[in-house]
TrEMBL record:
<dbReference type="Pfam" id="PF04972">
    <property type="entry name" value="BON"/>
</dbReference>
<dbReference type="InterPro" id="IPR036779">
    <property type="entry name" value="LysM_dom_sf"/>
</dbReference>
<protein>
    <submittedName>
        <fullName>Peptidoglycan-binding protein LysM</fullName>
    </submittedName>
</protein>
<feature type="domain" description="BON">
    <location>
        <begin position="19"/>
        <end position="87"/>
    </location>
</feature>
<dbReference type="InterPro" id="IPR018392">
    <property type="entry name" value="LysM"/>
</dbReference>
<feature type="region of interest" description="Disordered">
    <location>
        <begin position="20"/>
        <end position="40"/>
    </location>
</feature>
<dbReference type="InterPro" id="IPR007055">
    <property type="entry name" value="BON_dom"/>
</dbReference>
<dbReference type="InterPro" id="IPR052196">
    <property type="entry name" value="Bact_Kbp"/>
</dbReference>
<feature type="compositionally biased region" description="Basic and acidic residues">
    <location>
        <begin position="27"/>
        <end position="40"/>
    </location>
</feature>
<dbReference type="Pfam" id="PF01476">
    <property type="entry name" value="LysM"/>
</dbReference>
<feature type="domain" description="LysM">
    <location>
        <begin position="93"/>
        <end position="144"/>
    </location>
</feature>
Length: 149
């Protein structure tokens, strides 16, 4: 799935993390599990401000959500997502939230003019990492799944 970049200074504050270093691997694993993600076949390795994910996930969606749960935490600058999906699906695009963004505006940008009402697709794709469509913040990375044909 590749390398994702994150803003080190924003995101979940996990025990053992600082703006200069991510939390230890076991704490990052607990963060993903807190969101209901299955980490039983996932290995996490921390190298400086980079986190490397290996092993497998049930689906492409779950692998992407694991990367976001780990990456959207203080101290993480990059996530190398090498998870293999048991059930492969089309990969999502990723979007870094900017100041003034809303999910509606992001939907218009990513899906095209007049597609603002599709913000719920983005919201649903990022559950349970997002608890409300209005609770996004600059620097946060979101999944932007392809629209169904």
């Amino acid at each position: 799935m590749g390398l994702l970049s994150f803003a080190k200074s924003v995101g979940a504050k996990i025990v053992g993390a600082s703006e200069t270093a991510p939390a230890p691997a076991d704490q990052l694993k607990k963060e993903a599990e807190k969101h209901g993600l299955d980490m039983s076949k996932t290995d996490i390795k921390v190298e400086g401000d980079k986190v490397i994910l290996s092993g497998s996930a049930a689906s492409t969606e779950e692998a992407e959500k694991i990367a976001l749960a780990v990456g959207n935490s203080v101290g993480v600058a990059k996530v190398q997502n090498d998870l293999k999906a048991t059930k492969p699906e089309p990969e999502s695009k990723f979007y870094t939230v900017k100041s003034g963004d809303t999910l509606w505006k992001i939907a218009e940008t990513e899906y095209g003019q007049g597609k603002g009402p599709k913000y719920n697709v983005i919201f649903d794709a990022n559950k349970p990492l997002l608890s409300h469509p209005d609770k996004i913040y600059p620097g946060q990375v979101l999944r932007i799944p392809p629209l169904a044909a």
